[in-house]
C-alpha cells in the first residue's frame, strides 16, 4: 500500500489564461473564490494492475449467418456453425458456449463424436478440426489441412474412429479421429464409377454406411450417380445413374431401401434388390398439369426418412420442393406421415434441419420426437409427438435481432425486486400455443455461481421497441417488451413525405436510453428528435399523454466586427438567438409554413388505456424550423429527485420539468455561456422585430409557450473561421448536487453540460423542497457562465466525495401512482440523498468532479474549480465510451478507445482526494489491444457497467459480454456450464440370446484392420498436413472437468465394467447350463441307442 502526501499551499483565486486567448480550466464569470486551507492528505492505493484482465464471458443471441447443424442424441447437445467460423454449442438453459476458428473460415459441416465429448468441424479452407468438449471452454486438439482437394462432405459412423471425407474431385478419404492422420485407403472416383462412363460424376454430396452392413459405404455424387462401395472387397456392389442431381440421401433403418431428394423437387425410393430404377418417384408439391406433365418444382435440399414403433407409417421430412409458379411463398418444411402432408411455413430461408431421434443406432427403429430447424435468422424445434406439430418455447434469447438493435444499456447490481416485477408483467404478454413438453436440448449441467447479483440489459430497436433482459449469472432471459410507437398516431399518407425527409424507414428507432432503476422512471430518445418519459405501474390506467414541443434551432452567422456594433443596443433576439419554444404560427398555404412549428410525429391526443408496466406520461418533440427538420438529440439526462429532464443537440439545450409539464430552459449553446464564452462567438437572428425579455427560465404553460432570458455579451471578432462554421453540440448532460459558482459554500442541484468543443458549463438550479411547493412554484434555472475546458468532445461526468467514494445522484423512491388510494398512508414523494442537511454533511467540504472527453481526463476540485490533475488518454485516436465504474470494492475510470484499446485509470488513489490536495499521478492500470474497430456497431453499442463487466453487439444478431475484472476471470470456469456429462451409451436392441451369442450378424466389420497403416499404408504427405492443437489428448483430458469430472467418469467406467462382467458371468452360467443339458440329453440318447443295430435306426 502506497501513501501519497501532498500539501496545497498555493491555490490561486483565478486561473491563468492560455496563450491562445482562451481561458484555462477553472475560469468562470463571477466573484473568485478563496483558496482552501492547506491540509495533509493521506491516500491508500487499493486498485492495482493485477486487478484487471480482459476476457470474453458469454455470447447471447442468434448465431450470425449460420451454415451447419449437428446434434448428439446421447448428450443432447446441439451445435451450430457460422459463415465467420464460429461454433455455438447449446444444451439446457445456462449451457451456452461459443467457439471460434482462428482462421475465420466458414463452417461447412459438423460431426459429433456421439457421447465422446468431441466435435469435428469441416471448414471452407479445407481444414478439419477436432474440438474437445470435455472442458468448459472447448479447445482444438487436432487439425488436418487438405492441400490438393476441397472438402464437400463428411460422415462419421456411430462408435467409429474413422471419418469418411468426400471431396470436390469425387474422391473419398478416411481420417483416423484419434491421431487425425489420413489413412492410405482411398476410394478414387474413377474406381467408384464404371470405366465406360465418360463424364465426371461431380463432387461427393453424400456418404453413409449401410445400416445392415457397416462394410458397405453409400456414396452420392452431385450428378445423380450413387455407388454402393464394398470396403472389404474394394469394389462397387452396384451403381445407380439417375437423371436428376442429388442433394441428400436417407436410409430406412432396416438397410434395404433408401430415399433421395433431387433438384427437380422429386423424391426417389430405391430398393437394394433392384437398383435398375427407383420403385417410387414422387413430387410432393408438384401437381399434374393438363398435358399430363408435372409442374416444375424447386429443389428438395434435404430429406430425412425415419420410422416409428407406434405407427406403421414412416416420417418423411424435407425442405423445399415447392412449385415455381407460386411466387412469394415463404420457405417451407414439409412433414409427410402416411397420407397426411403438413407444410410448415417459415419466416426465413431454411439453412439446415435435423430430426431428433431416441436412438443413436441407425439400424434400429428411430423413434423421431422433434425436428430442429435452423433458419437464416432464427432457430426453432418442432414437436413431432403431437398431431398439430407445435414448436417448443425457445429458452435461448434468439430474438435479440427481431428488430435491429440500435442501442444498448447495461445495469449491474439493480434493486432485487425489479426483475421479478418486470417478469410478472412481461409474462402476461407472452405468446401461447407452444408445446407443453420440456425443451429437448437438455444436455450439459449448469449451476448459478457464487457471485450473482441482479443484472439487467436493455436494448433499443429500429422499430421503436424496447426489450428488458435478465442478465443475472451470465444468462439472458427476456423480461419485458415495450413498444414506443404506440405513443404516436399512425402516419397518414400525406405525412409520410415529411417524415421521410428525416428518417427513411424507421421513424421510431431508439437512439438513447436513460433508466433510473430506483425510481423506475424510464426515458428514451428517438431518431425523430423525440423524447418519451415512462413511469412504471402495476395497474392499468386510462390517461392522456402530455406533449411538449421545443423549438431548438439556431443559425450561426458571421462574426460582427466592433464597427458594426458601436451604435447597436446590446440586446439578444430571443426568436433567433435562443431556440425557444414558440406558439404555432398561423397556417398558410405554403408547404414550409405547414411543416414549420410541427414535430415529425403526432402524439395521440385522446384518452388511452395503458396496460400494467411502463406507461407513457410525457413526450417532448423538437419542431421543424424554416423548412428544415430538427437535428437529432445527442444527449439526455433525467433526475427523478429533481423531477427534471434535460436534452441537447447540435443547436442547444432544453430543460423540462416533467412534474409540472413545462419547459424551463431552451437556449442555444452560445447563450449558455453569457459573457464567459471562451471564443467570444455571437449569433444573430434574421428577425429584428423582437427584443429580449429578462426573467426566470421557466415556461408558463404545458404548451411550452415560454420565453427565456438571454444574455448580452461583448462583441468580438477574435473567433476563428473554424469556430464560426462548427456547431457546438451538447454531447453529455448530468444532474448532480454540486457547486455552480466558486463562492458557493454548500452544494445545490446543478446541471453539468459538456459540449463537442470540450467545454463544460455548470448550471445551478433552485428547486422547491416542499412537495406542495414543488408542484406549484417555478423551478429557477440560472446559467452562471461557469466554464471548464478539456481537449475534444466531453463524454462523461462523475463526482467523488473527499473520502474517495462515488457520489450517486439523488433519486425518488418508486411509488405506484395508479395504485388504489390508502387514506391511512398518503402518497408522498420520498427522496433519497436530496435533503440539504445530508448534502452538507457529505459534501460540505467540497468534492471532486471527474470529467472525461474523447482525448483527455481531468479532475477538478469544487467549488474552487481548480484542476488537480490532467491525463491525456490519447493523442492519435479518440475515446468512444467512458464511464466511472465500481470494481473490486473501488472505483475506476474505464475508457473504450477507437483503436480498440480498453484503458482503466485508478480512481480511489489518484482521483479521490481531499479538497486541499492535488492528486499524484493517474497511472494507467491496463492498456490492452482487445479487438480491431472494424464495425461501427461495436462503437455504437459498447457500454460499461459495475462489477467489472461490459457488453457490445458483435454482429447484427449477437451480443458479446466481457469482463475486465481479474476476479471474475478467475471465477469464470465456475460460472460457465459443463458441455459434457458422463452418460452411459444406450445399448443396442436385444436380438435374442442365440442370435446375439452365436453372432447372428455375420457382417462383422473391423475398420482398424482395413484402414490401419498395416493394411492400407500411409497417405501421401502432400495430400494433407496435420496441425497439432493447443494441447495433446491426454493433457486436455486431464484439464477437462477437474477432479469431480474425472471421478465421475471413473465411477461410471467401473460401473460399466462391473455390468459387463456381470453380463459375462450370466452368459457363462447360461453356457454351463446349456452344456449340462446337452450332455444329459446326449447320455440319454447313448443309453437308448447303444444296444441297437445300425439297421434299426
UniProtKB/TrEMBL annotation:
All copies of domain V-SNARE coiled-coil homology, residue ranges: 1032-1092
Listed Low complexity bias regions: 19-33, 711-721
Annotated localization: Cell membrane; Cytoplasm
Mapped WD repeat ranges: 239-274
GO biological process: exocytosis; Golgi to plasma membrane transport; protein transport
Xref: CDD domains: R-SNARE_STXBP5
Gene Ontology CC terms, in alphabetical order: plasma membrane; SNARE complex
Keyword Cell membrane set for record: yes
Gene Ontology MF, one: myosin II binding
Region feature (Disordered): 1-37, 563-598, 681-725, 817-844
UniProt record similarity statement: Belongs to the WD repeat L(2)GL family.
Name of the molecule in the record: Syntaxin-binding protein 5-like
Organism: Cyprinus carpio
Amino acid at each position: 500500500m502506497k501513501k501519497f502526501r501532498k500539501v496545497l499551499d498555493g491555490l490561486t483565486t483565478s486561473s491563468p489564461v492560455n496563450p491562445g486567448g482562451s481561458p484555462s480550466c477553472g475560469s468562470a464569470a463571477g466573484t473568485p473564490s478563496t483558496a482552501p486551507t492547506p491540509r495533509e492528505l493521506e491516500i491508500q492505493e487499493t486498485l492495482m494492475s493485477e486487478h484487471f484482465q480482459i476476457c470474453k464471458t458469454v455470447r447471447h443471441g442468434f448465431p450470425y449467418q449460420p451454415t451447419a447443424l449437428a446434434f448428439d442424441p446421447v448428450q443432447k447437445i446441439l451445435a451450430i456453425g457460422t459463415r465467420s467460423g464460429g461454433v455455438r454449442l447449446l444444451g439446457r438453459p445456462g449451457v451456452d458456449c461459443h467457439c471460434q476458428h482462428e482462421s475465420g473460415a466458414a463452417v461447412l459441416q459438423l460431426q459429433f463424436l456421439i457421447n465422446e465429448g468431441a466435435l469435428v468441424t469441416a471448414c471452407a479452407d479445407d481444414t478439419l478440426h477436432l474440438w474437445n468438449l470435455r472442458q468448459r471452454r472447448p479447445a482444438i486438439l487436432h487439425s488436418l489441412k487438405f492441400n490438393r482437394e476441397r472438402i464437400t462432405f463428411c460422415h462419421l459412423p456411430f462408435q467409429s474412429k474413422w471419418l469418411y471425407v468426400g471431396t470436390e474431385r469425387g474422391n473419398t478419404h478416411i481420417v483416423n479421429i484419434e491421431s487425425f492422420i489420413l489413412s492410405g485407403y482411398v476410394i478414387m472416383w474413377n474406381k467408384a464409377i464404371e470405366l465406360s462412363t465418360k463424364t465426371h460424376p461431380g463432387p461427393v454430396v453424400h456418404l453413409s454406411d449401410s445400416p445392415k452392413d457397416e462394410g458397405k459405404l453409400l456414396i452420392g455424387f452431385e450428378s445423380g450417380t450413387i455407388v454402393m462401395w464394398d470396403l472389404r472387397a474394394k469394389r462397387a456392389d452396384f451403381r445407380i445413374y439417375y437423371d436428376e442431381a442429388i442433394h441428400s440421401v436417407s436410409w430406412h433403418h432396416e438397410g434395404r431401401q433408401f430415399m433421395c431428394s433431387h433438384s427437380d423437387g422429386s423424391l426417389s425410393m430405391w430398393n437394394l434388390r433392384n437398383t435398375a430404377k427407383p420403385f417410387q418417384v414422387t413430387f410432393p408439391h408438384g401437381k399434374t398439369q393438363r398435358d399430363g406433365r408435372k409442374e416444375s418444382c424447386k429443389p428438395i435440399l434435404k430429406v430425412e426418412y425415419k420410422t416409428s414403433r407406434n405407427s406403421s407409417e414412416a416420417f418423411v421430412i424435407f425442405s423445399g420442393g415447392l412449385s415455381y409458379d407460386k411466387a412469394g411463398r415463404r420457405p417451407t418444411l414439409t412433414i409427410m406421415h402416411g397420407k397426411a402432408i403438413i407444410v410448415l411455413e417459415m419466416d426465413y430461408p431454411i439453412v439446415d434441419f435435423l430430426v431428433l431421434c431416441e436412438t443413436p443406432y441407425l439400424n434400429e427403429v428411430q423413434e423421431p420426437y422433434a425436428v430442429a430447424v435452423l433458419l437464416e435468422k432464427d432457430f426453432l424445434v418442432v414437436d413431432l409427438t403431437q398431431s398439430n406439430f407445435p414448436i417448443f418455447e425457445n429458452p435461448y434469447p434468439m430474438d435479440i435481432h427481431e428488430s435491429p438493435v440500435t442501442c444498448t444499456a447495461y445495469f449491474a447490481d439493480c434493486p432485487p425486486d425489479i426483475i421479478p416485477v418486470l417478469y410478472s408483467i412481461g409474462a402476461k404478454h407472452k405468446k401461447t400455443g407452444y408445446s407443453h413438453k420440456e425443451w429437448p436440448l437438455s444436455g450439459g449441467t449448469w449451476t448459478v455461481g457464487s457471485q450473482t447479483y441482479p443484472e439487467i440489459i436493455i436494448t433499443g430497436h429500429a422499430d421503436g421497441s424496447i426489450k428488458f433482459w435478465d442478465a443475472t449469472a451470465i444468462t439472458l432471459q427476456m423480461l419485458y417488451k415495450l413498444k414506443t410507437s404506440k405513443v404516436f398516431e399512425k402516419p397518414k399518407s400525406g405525412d409520410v413525405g415529411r417524415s421521410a425527409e428525416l428518417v427513411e424507414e424507421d421513424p421510431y428507432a431508439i437512439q438513447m436510453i436513460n433508466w433510473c432503476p430506483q425510481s423506475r422512471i424510464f426515458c428514451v430518445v428517438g431518431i425523430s428528435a423525440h423524447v418519451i418519459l415512462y413511469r412504471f405501474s402495476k395497474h392499468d390506467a386510462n390517461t392522456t399523454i402530455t406533449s411538449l414541443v421545443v423549438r431548438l434551432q439556431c443559425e450561426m452567422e458571421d462574426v460582427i466586427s466592433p464597427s458594426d456594433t458601436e451604435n447597436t443596443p446590446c440586446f439578444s433576439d430571443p426568436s433567433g438567438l435562443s431556440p425557444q419554444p414558440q406558439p404555432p404560427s398561423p397556417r398558410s398555404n405554403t408547404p414550409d409554413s405547414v411543416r414549420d412549428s410541427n414535430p415529425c410525429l403526432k402524439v395521440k391526443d385522446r384518452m388511452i388505456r395503458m396496460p400494467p408496466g411502463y406507461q407513457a406520461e410525457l413526450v417532448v418533440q423538437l419542431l421543424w424550423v424554416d423548412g428544415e427538420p430538427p437535428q437529432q438529440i445527442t444527449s439526455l439526462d433525467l433526475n427523478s429527485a429533481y423531477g427534471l429532464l434535460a436534452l441537447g443537440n447540435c443547436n442547444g439545450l432544453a430543460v423540462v420539468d416533467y412534474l409540472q409539464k413545462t419547459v424551463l430552459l431552451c437556449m442555444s449553446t452560445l447563450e449558455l455561456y453569457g459573457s464567459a464564452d471562451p471564443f467570444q462567438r455571437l449569433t444573430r437572428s434574421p428577425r429584428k422585430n423582437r427584443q429580449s425579455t429578462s426573467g426566470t427560465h421557466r415556461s408558463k404553460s404545458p404548451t411550452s409557450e415560454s420565453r427565456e432570458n438571454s444574455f448580452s455579451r461583448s462583441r468580438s471578432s477574435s473567433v476563428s473561421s473554424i469556430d464560426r462554421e462548427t456547431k457546438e453540440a451538447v454531447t453529455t448532460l448530468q444532474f448532480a448536487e454540486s457547486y455552480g459558482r466558486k463562492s458557493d459554500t454548500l452544494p445545490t442541484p446543478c446541471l453539468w453540460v459538456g459540449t463537442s468543443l470540450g467545454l463544460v458549463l455548470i448550471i445551478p438550479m433552485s428547486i422547491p423542497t416542499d412537495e406542495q411547493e414543488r408542484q406549484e412554484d417555478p423551478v429557477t434555472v440560472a446559467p452562471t457562465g461557469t466554464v471548464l475546458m478539456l481537449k475534444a468532445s466531453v463524454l462523461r461526468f462523475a463526482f467523488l466525495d473527499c473520502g474517495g467514494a462515488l457520489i450517486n445522484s439523488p433519486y425518488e423512491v418508486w411509488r405506484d401512482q395508479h395504485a388504489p388510494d390508502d387514506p391511512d398512508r398518503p402518497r408522498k414523494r420520498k427522496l433519497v440523498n436530496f435533503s440539504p442537511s445530508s448534502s452538507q454533511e457529505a459534501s460540505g467540504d467540497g468534492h471532486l468532479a471527474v470529467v472525461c472527453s474523447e482525448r483527455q481526463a481531468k479532475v477538478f476540485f469544487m467549488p474552487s474549480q481548480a484542476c488537480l490533475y490532467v491525463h491525456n488518454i490519447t493523442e492519435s485516436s479518440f475515446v468512444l465510451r467512458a464511464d466511472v465504474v465500481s470494481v473490486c470494492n473501488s472505483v475506476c475510470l474505464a475508457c473504450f478507445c477507437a483503436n480498440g484499446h480498453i484503458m482503466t485509470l485508478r480512481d480511489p488513489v489518484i482521483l479521490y482526494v481531499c479538497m486541499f490536495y492535488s492528486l499524484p499521478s493517474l497511472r494507467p492500470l491496463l492498456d490492452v489491444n482487445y479487438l480491431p474497430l472494424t464495425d461501427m456497431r461495436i462503437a455504437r453499442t459498447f457500454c460499461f457497467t459495475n462489477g467489472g463487466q461490459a457488453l457490445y453487439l458483435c454482429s447484427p444478431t449477437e451480443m458479446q459480454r466481457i469482463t475486465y475484472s481479474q476476479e471474475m476471470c478467475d471465477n469464470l470456469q465456475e460460472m460457465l456450464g459443463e458441455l459434457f456429462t458422463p452418460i452411459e451409451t444406450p445399448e443396442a436392441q436385444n436380438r435374442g440370446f442365440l442370435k446375439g451369442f452365436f453372432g447372428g450378424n455375420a457382417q462383422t466389420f473391423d475398420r482398424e484392420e482395413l484402414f490401419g497403416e498395416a493394411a492400407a499404408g500411409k497417405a501421401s504427405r502432400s495430400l494433407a498436413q496435420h496441425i497439432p492443437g493447443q494441447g495433446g489428448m491426454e493433457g486436455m483430458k486431464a484439464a477437462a472437468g477437474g477432479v469431480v469430472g474425472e471421478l465421475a467418469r471413473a465411477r461410471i467406467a467401473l460401473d460399466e465394467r462391473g455390468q459387463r462382467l456381470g453380463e459375462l458371468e450370466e452368459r457363462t452360467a447360461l453356457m454351463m447350463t446349456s452344456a449340462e443339458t446337452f450332455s444329459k440329453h446326449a447320455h440319454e440318447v447313448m443309453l437308448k441307442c447303444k444296444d441297437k443295430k445300425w439297421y434299426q435306426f
